[in-house]
Each structure stands twice: as structure tokens, then as C-alpha cells.
Amino acid sequence: MQINHWLSPPISAAAAKIHLSKEALFEKPLTPSDVGKLNRLVIPKQHAERYFPLNGGGGEKGLLLGFEDEAGKSWRFRYSYWNSSQSYVLTKGWSRFVKEKRLDAGDIVVFARHPDDLGRLFIGWRRRGGQEAAAPPPPNSGGWSGLLYPAHSHVDIHGKERNRNSKRLRLFGVNLEWDEEEPTSGSIEEPFLEYYSSHCPTGHTAS
Amino acid sequence: MQINHWLSPPISAAAAKIHLSKEALFEKPLTPSDVGKLNRLVIPKQHAERYFPLNGGGGEKGLLLGFEDEAGKSWRFRYSYWNSSQSYVLTKGWSRFVKEKRLDAGDIVVFARHPDDLGRLFIGWRRRGGQEAAAPPPPNSGGWSGLLYPAHSHVDIHGKERNRNSKRLRLFGVNLEWDEEEPTSGSIEEPFLEYYSSHCPTGHTAS
DNA sequence: CACGTAACCTGAAAT
DNA sequence: GATTTCAGGTTACGT
Predict the structure, then answer these.
(1) Where does the TF-B3 domain start and stop, copy by copy (chains A, B) (predicted)?
(2) What is the CATH code for B13-197?
(3) Which residue gives the smallest C-alpha to C1' distance to D8?
């Protein structure tokens, strides 16, 4: 069963904002092309236009987007719109990210931003679902050194990525979403932190 | 056995200059990309910077280089530096040359200049090596209506192209280099002229 | 709007 | 082992 890691159960958005450092934007399950020789990541149009708008003036040659990963490492990607395929893509720099993180088709890339500085972007990832609950994650099985909360009220509601067994709760104008099945025992935060931070070089663990 | 056509045996540079009309600069064995759909010829950096320097002032958008072929026909190519690949290229005009000369991968393009007018450039070519010594060259098997001598004293001394069985002689400040094995019978000039000029429409043959 | 070509990008290989 | 080179790709754009 897939755990939706950043949509933790009964935490209010305000409470989350206090000790969570990232605002989730969207996820992209990687296609074979996303991790293959095309050296590009297609960003679903609805997310691209909502969070990374290219309003013409943004530059016909696209722009450079800077992200931080779970270790605080900086990643800069060229972001542009391809008329030929009518799609938004990350190009230059993307293949290096795929290689360093050993990403494969089915793995999921997570985009987020700083709640108080919307220009500060983060990129995370996790291994493709199916094994997390069945076995302890191997080292480097996922990346992000912090908690997340959703940025808006309709995360993938219409997308294929939405977990149809999840539950939603609207608090303080923000919808929260989480999985009901197979709740983790004990603290709701520890497994998440354990999972995401076990290999984090900056030491942001749940201790 | 490949004949090094412009590095003829015991001819002094001065003698050569009297009746040879071209100063050899360098050769480029054509890659599949050089003759393919990329419509560009990559000029090895060492040769580009030595003979076709683009000193910034040459124009960030490159410059137009004019050459004469074996028939005296004028060819103009756009010559520029690609920052992305850190390489010097001939672009505009190149594909027409490839098509007219029927150049294929492995064929060799030869660059030369006028000894007394260094701004006068020549471009020649020959079919890929391996058959010249084994069989008489077919019509249109190579192009250049003149003799060549090396432009400088260290042609590929450190490169892979240098024939390790060749001999060198320094005369008048110019190193000459030639193969000792399998010397051509008779005149040292006739095979060269025969080979390069057999199809020359202007009739500059060895007659 | 299809085609030709300029410019950009990357991986592999050489150094 | 980091850097440079360049062959082989890509997209973008002008005609």
C-alpha cells in the first residue's frame, strides 16, 4: 500500500506550517522517457501552468529553475515549453539528476516550494510504490529531509496519480489528504522521517 | 598503404613553393555526422584556432569563409564557434559541398591556402583511403588541381595520424615528412597529380 | 507548413 | 581522475 508521505493525517495546515518546511506542489511518476535518453522531464501541463508559468515574457528560450534537493544540494534545470509536443519540460540538467538519484521508470519526483518564499523551490523523489510497507526501505531509497503539506486543495484530484482510497479534510482553507489503510503504528511522523531521512547527509532525522 | 600526398620526399620548401600552388593546412576525415543531417563540419579545435582564428572581434555570430575547390569554383561557408559543444564548425554552405562532391563518411577533406596570399583559401577532398594503391582511382575519386606542401613543421607529430614509419627532413625552416616504404616508381610528382587531377574540369593535369 | 539549417545539449572517449 | 574534445543527438526557427 502506497503511503502518501506528505499528506499526514490530522494535522492542521497551520500546525503543519509551523514545523514543516515545504509546501507540496505536485508529483510526477517518471515514465521510461523521463529517465531515458531524451534527457527531459515532461511536466504535466496543469501543474506547469499553475506553478511554473511561462508567460511569454518568461523567455521564448525558457528559463532556468533552481531547486534544492533533500541534502540541500542545488539543481538548476532549464525549463521551457516545446511547441512541437505542446508540453512543458525540464531539459538541461535533468539527466544529471536522474543519474545521481538513480531514478528509474515508476519512481516519483516531488516538487515543492518554501511556504514563506515561493521562489524557493525544492525537488524530491521516492522509489516507485509497492514495497515501502512490505519491507524496510534500503539506504538511499528516497529523498527529502523534511515534511510536506499540500499547496492547494486539489492535488491530482483529476490526475491518474490520485490514490482513490485516500481521505481528504479541509482545514483553514487547505485540503489535507491522506491514506486511511494500513496506518503506521505509533507516531505519524516517525516513519515518514525515518523513511525520508535515513540517508540524509544533513542529519535532519527524527531523533 | 596510404600515400601522404602532400608530404613528398626530397623537395625543399623553396623548390616546392616555386611550382606548388597550395600550402596544406590540415585534413579532416569525415565522420558520419559531418556528412549527415546535422549539416555541419566540425573542425578540430587545434586546427581551427591555428588557421581560422575567431578572435572575438571576428564576430560572435561567426564569419563567412571563402574557399576555392579543385575546379576554381568558389565555396562560402559560415564558420563559427559553438559554445554549447566548445567546437568550431562550418555550417551554412557545408551540406551543399557534401552533396555536390558526393562525400561520404571516411572521405577526407583537405584545407589549404595560397602560399603568397594567406587569405586565399582552398578546399579539396579525396575518397577514403585503402584503395588508392591497390587499384587505379575511378573518375571523380578525388579533387584538387594542384600540389601541396605542409604549412608547418609539426604536422600531427603527437597525433594518431602520424605514420610512425615516416621520415622527416628539416629544410629552410620547414620540416618535410614522407613514407620510406613502397616508394612510387618514377617521378615523385606524377602519381600525385594523376590522382588528384584526373577528373579536373579545368584541365590542370600533369601533362 | 514542411524542410533546411542554426544553435544547443550530452555522453563517451581521449588526454 | 578531472577536464577537454567532439560525434551524435535534440529543438527552434526562418523561408
Answers:
(1) 26-129
(2) 2.40.330.10
(3) B33
